[in-house]
Structure formats: structure tokens, C-alpha cells
Amino acid sequence: MIARARSLGLICGALPPGPLNAITDVEGVKVGHHTLRDGDLLTGFTAILPHPGDLFRDKVRAGLDIINGFGKSAGLVQVAELGQIETPILLGNTLSVGTGFNALVTRALAANGDIGRDTGTVNPVVLECNDGWLSDIRARALTEADAFQALDAARTGPVEEGAVGAGTGMSAFGFKGGIGTASRLVSLDGRGYTVGVLALANFGNAGDLVLPDGRRPLPPAGPAPGEPERGSVILVLATDIPLESRQLARIARRCGAGLARLGAFWGNGSGDIAVAFTTAGRIGHHDRADLVALVALNENRIDLPFRAAAEATQEAVINALLAAPATSGRDGHWRPSLADVLRAPS
User: Fold this and answer.
1) Domain span holding position 274
2) How many structural domains compose the chain?
3) pLDDT by residue (tens digit) across 290-300?
């Protein structure tokens, strides 16, 4: 049975989790994976769909925070400028960003005959981490067909975690990393809302990991003294709280607090990015009104979503580590499982 943080008594913060403790606790959000395991290839795509409709015509409000910008993602400049997302979000490895971009463009063009003709072009959002320690990233093995399979596999309900999809070849804190997710419930004006986070964990030096109970587990090989931090982490935050894009950027920034609780310091070579969106107050591409109504959170109540972002991020990364098995990859490189280390007799 795959372990999660709570099954091992690791509680991150004070807010309650959602029923699935996953990003898919936010109604309408779907996640899909496509995994490629073939010899020295341990890679894949993960897709996050903010809602089941046509995102180009029915965009979601969004914000982002570049915690440390050593990354090669696509689409973030327009997200920062316009505060909206108009395609599914694809996660992959560093050298698959162009492939994911092309796949999202292909799908958007097929569904919207006016793109590039009667209306503007489309802004695909693709984010990445470098899985080259365990996988042969130079092979550039991922194809548009692989991206389509991740998109088509997207479902509501429980999210598969660990060494799947984009997380197949990732490492974190000297352990096998990958995909993890968690959620938090908050109450505003007497109504319940959800904040969910999905993490692609590929960051952190061996020996730096701090668990919620204070333990600092070491991989069997131990830490490498003075090793620079060259990993990355991608965080996708979803919520149904009505928010402005500026507020979403502020909440995305608090994902960094969750990383800090784990012992991360965001090294020079680390690409650490948080993207947040809300399913509330969507933006119609062809809305003809000059002025549109906007319901948004009272800024004086934003501490609850801040806390939810930090807690869910911390737990999502731990869930990624616990779900990922010990893995051998390219050229005999190996990453141990955090779950195995925690279960070993002391």
C-alpha cells in the first residue's frame, strides 16, 4: 500500500484536508498522467485541467510566483500580464517543453477554428523539471502523442502519486521524488471552499529534508557536503475561492512557505515556480461587455488561503516522496524511497 503523510502520522499544519486530500477536491479539476518507462527512459507528462470545458473560450483567472527562476517553462509571461490561463497545464521534463507546447496548440486549434484567424493566438502553459539524473533526457523521447495521452487520461477523483507522469524520473532531497498532492478546506462567510496543490518535486539537497515531526531523514548514501542545489519544483494551486489574479499571485507566493518548512532554500540552480488558478469568476473569450462584475475575496481575509497554500504544499511534497519507490535509472543511477527509510528499524 502506498504511504501518504497522514498514514504515517505526519500532519502538516492545522487546517483540515479535503475528502481526497488532493487538488481534485476542487470541483471540476482533473489530473491525468502518461508514463514512459523503457530502459534508460523514465519520464512522462502530467496534465491538469482546471475545468472540463473549452479553456480557450472559458478562461480561468490565474497568478504565479517565480520563487527562483532557473527554469524553461512556456506561457508564464502572458499569465503574469493578463492573469488568466486558457489551456490545460502540462508538466514534463525540461527538454519536452516545446513538445508539450505543440500538443496544447494542436488541441486548441482543433477545438477553435477562429484561433489565428478571427481572434488571437493561444497561450499554452507548460512547466518542467529536469529528470536527467535518472532518465536519458537527451533522447528527447516524449512526443505529442504522449502529451495527448496525459490530457485524455485526466480524471476527477483520486490522483496517482509518486513516480508517475512527469514525476517518473524526478528526485528530491536525495530520495526518489515525483508527483504529490494535498488540499485544505477553509470557511469564508459561512461557506466552505477548497485549496488544492499538486507538486512536481525534483529539488532539495540530501540531508536538508525536515519532516513535520522534526525528523531529518537521510538517504542511505548520506548527504554530499557542499553540493549545489540544482533541482526544481513546480507547484500548481487550484481553488474555488473567488479571487483576483493579483490575489492569486499573492497566494502562489505562500507555496514557498511550504517549501521552506521542508528545509528548501531555493538554490541558484533551482527552478521553483508556483502557478495558481481559481475556478470561480471565469473569463469568457468573446464577452462583449465593456464592464464585467467581479466578486473577490476581502483582502483582510486572505490569511486563510495563505495558510492553506503553505500547508498543502508541504504535504503534497511529502506525499510525492512517500509514494515514490526506490528507483534505478540511467547509467545505474539510483534513488532510495523515503517510505522505506522511515519504515526501517531504527
Assistant:
1) 13-216+226-327
2) 1
3) 998 899 999 99
